[in-house]
Amino acid sequence: MLxxxxxxxxxxxxxxxxxxxxxxxxxxxxxxxARLGADGLIAEAGRxxxxxxxxxxxxxxxxxxxxxxxxxxxxxxxxxxxVDLAGRVVGECLGPLDFGAGPEAVVEAVxxxxxxxxxPVGLPLLGVGVVAPGPLDHRAGTMGRVTGFPSWKGFPxxxxxxxxxxxxxxxxxxTNAGAAAAAGAWLRATWPDADADADADADxxxxxxxxxAGGVPDAYGYAGGGPRTCVYLHVGTGxxxxxxxxxxxxxxxxxxxGEFGHQVxxxxxxxxxxxxxxxxxxLCLGAVARGDLPEAARILGEAAANLVALLDVDRVLLGGRVxxxxxxxxxxGVGAVLAARALDPARPVVALAGAGVAEGAxxxxxxxxxxxxx
Length: 374
Known about the structure:
Structural class: alpha/beta
């Protein structure tokens, strides 16, 4: 029910529509909404236009009622955000990080960052999403043999952080968080900025609306939902992919899906830090190091075309600091390769992700609130 109200935005939904969409009885919906209202999670959003009877009261989510944190642990920097229930950033911090300094130093950095973004006078955080370079075991909460940093293998990062923070912690790969952020971007677009929303709450009335929201076109043009299938390609200190398939992040049986950067494009090519030769990561980042960004985009596009041919996705979304430094070059370069290699005229759209990895980490942490078990 909270998920439906989140998707409806400030316009809200009526109890009858909530009953229809959830399959619950009107009596059950009334009891649940009363409890959610008492907890401060939902509020009235005005009344729908009358169709002959008594105007229906609409309900909406109260985004600022709860917050969650997301932390992106990269190889050389750490970014943390605090978000509200609509996924909007209300606090953030960024600083350098030496991932190679080892688990203990990184744990201390994460604890400090969460303390910095937390609201010292507000409600405690619902939880913290922490994302890091893979491979890692999402289910067990342990790190794998991160490429270039073998000392991390087997470290129980989730458990250690839960003990230090006293909060639920979710651990995932940075690329999976990127996919979650991209898929959640359409939801944030349905909400006004946080200050405007707080002003509406202070007024105590969201105003009269013409009718219940029946689905808002998302950031990718879908009328009523986020992307159905997409791949998020992250180019930063490494190169990887997050897969959004079937309405959620696809991780694979061993949390190993998305090791996109280590597909071999050039047999007997330059050695990669993973131990293979000619991987897309070493080729793409090598072109970046030479300052040849068009070539880096072309290499990324060739690897993306392989993935598109395999998965038949709707969207290819690009992110990471390398892409953010030259977005037009990468969107155009990857798009050109996909167009040249397309077997179907209805090829996927290439676009920027529109949200950062730390935001995706927080989105994953919000999942249980909205009935999504991550």
